[in-house]
């Protein structure tokens, strides 16, 4: 392929059958897929990607289907993403999530990614697909299935063993992706190979991934996301082997230090995306939109770290300074590390990420900021092709302008910001601005940490915008006139100049706006303060009429824009608009309301219905329709009562029958990690990859034993519990990722043997329960780290040379899954898990009753609690329910929470993390039916349980229909 010049033809019209567009609720915006479901030709040049020759600007939102195990909620989140001004979703595909065992793959139920891509196709969005094979993403193994630890050959290289393994994954995932490409009428626009694979690694491997994709029918541009060496994988680097077509940059300028949310302002730099290849558009592959909570401060702090101020400054700065036209924001919806999905070092159950859409699917102030920016970026076509331009000069050294312009239209985009990035002052100045329509002195002001993108010389529909000091949120031709939404900082002055061949008529419908017309230039200048929502109608003057809506950040937030076959509609007042259609004189919306209130609709229509219900409306002087909508019905959540309890861990008793457990007697392992003692006790080597594992070690006592010395690696937050002849000896913390350096004494525990517990010449049994918190990622391409074992790495008797013989037990079936619906990451090897105690329908009638959990004592070991509760939540309403535990988490024990058999959280002290609310996603939670909760409590010391309750994280009238997710019961 010719990579050297100009537009590179990367795809041809494919003839394969297009995915069905059935169920599409709206036509797509200009240039978006879905409008016509025919295949499109994808090309690109240094400015942008083009579809059938038309330039597009990609505003992408990263979300992970595997962190939301309820397919109908994928639609909910996707609709929220689309309504928030995004036209694209960026998706990792997690190999480990689909493959419990070498050669075994599952793409059904919560793993049905074909269904996910179909939804995206139908919604008229684009997708950037990122199947790895390595994805990082704070998932266990960085997306590598744990069975890969048993495959020879260094991962993320051309090693034959690894190649054969990943080829298997790509054999499965690539064909699914291929049939959803835009070239075949679908949504997949770009294909991302590997993840932050830095230079000087294995170029042949990088090339092989691409060759494999092409062989599997991938014909859209191949991209990659680079982290720390921007030159990687561009054709200009080295021989070009492994180079991708559009290299992208990952930028996390705010760092992950959520504890310092108040003071952080780009500790990791200004975050401007570099253009890596001169012939490809700038691509912000992962631009920071939240943070992992490394310091366990809670995700609200991460949301502050990456809040609207940060977004305004850094995103706008990046857009104009880099001129990129491909953006993707990591994360826009984070979701949940349910089951054993988490990589243990960096995250806990919640992957909320401080994102714009919370883990409980609620919209935040960050979402509003995305909407303001996304609507702007996707509505102004000249942005898709800009070059650096001469910026206006400012008479205030405190203010700096940076400009780009579209070479065809001349439209200018001027970034206005403080010269000193850190400045939080209130500065005014005058720009000397040579616009395409003449030279002007333009008064500007920047208050606090802010940045604006001002526009000049723009054909705003049928109007000519000369310049404005207000920012444009969006504009649309509705009913034969232009409706534009502009905004500025609350209580600051604003001015907008439009040009007319003749004096137009100006009617101020609302607010205080003055206007002057200069017949010499044709300039109509409007002056106003950004306050409330002013409305100005302009008619005559030789152009079609226009309605300008002039607001503030707050007053333009409630606007929604939706595309219909009859053109765009604007809606104001609901908490979300999901879709709109216009038929004849009627506009039909699907929308959510969090409270009763007014709805205003700008549409070529006289009648309105919302969620299928007619809404009484009256026309307004603004040419819109106004009506009232009800809010949600009150939600009552039941108290959790009727608990029953049962102590488990029979494995601790000396007489327990472990004859069917796997004998652990290996003396070698593929892991380069040296065991402290033999045999090798690494859980993975015996096929137990996730969750808890039990070990039972037998020996004949000599009577001279004084203590036990154990070593175990669990990953951060993990611990292990030890019994000898049924007597609990205590617990210790397991080794962590850093121990892969390697540490000769990982997760050490020395346990004194009480006098009289052992008798010389008699058999003794050691029982050890080890948590496996998940597998290290492979960010550093480091085989030692990647293959760091889980489980015991050593066991020795102090004071005696008696030999130990071992058996091991983990998740039921090991790699041969017994619960295919919930998949490989849901369960580990607790006795209760192996015997169905976590499942709905388990016969717990003989278990002891407990009135309330609060204050209930738990003894060291494992104890289960179960209850059921009925819900009858209002229908046609979306209530996000969570299970709330006491704060702060207890030091002595931790709780594994199962809802209808799905493991949805790990709560507790001892470094488990700060989380006390655990989202129970609809679909897993039966909103109108009976639910089963099971809590497995592992106590390292005697302690007391706290209160547990159901709470609502938010409720709206509206939502999407959610069908129950298949959740097999106890049989
Ligand atoms: C990036 C990586 C992502 C994720 C992110 C931090 O470097 O590509 O997968 O790990 O950091 O959340």
Folded structure, characterized:
The chain is mainly beta and 971 residues long. The protein contains 11 helices and 57 strands. An 8-stranded parallel beta barrel has the order 5-6-7-8-9-10-11-12. An 8-stranded antiparallel beta sheet has the order 13-15-16-19-20-23-26-25. The protein has a 6-stranded antiparallel beta sheet with strand order 48-38-50-55-52-53, with no helix packed on it. Helix 1 runs parallel beside helix 3 (113-122) and helix 7 (308-322) packs parallel to helix 8 (365-379).
Indicate the overall shape: elongated
Largest sheet: 8 strands, parallel, barrel
CATH top level assignment of the largest domain: Alpha Beta
- Count every helix, treating DSSP H or I runs of 4 or more residues as helices: 11
CATH superfamily of the largest domain: Glycosidases
Please, how many domains?
Answer: 4
Number of E strands: 57
Enzyme class: hydrolase
Catalytic activity: Hydrolysis of terminal non-reducing beta-D-galactose residues in beta-D-galactosides
Protein name: beta-galactosidase
Domain Beta-galactosidase: 382-559
Question: Key features?
Answer:
single chain, 971 residues, mainly beta, TIM Barrel, beta-galactosidase, domain 2, Jelly Rolls, 4 domains, eight-stranded parallel beta barrel, eight-stranded antiparallel sheet, disordered N terminus, binds beta-D-galactopyranose
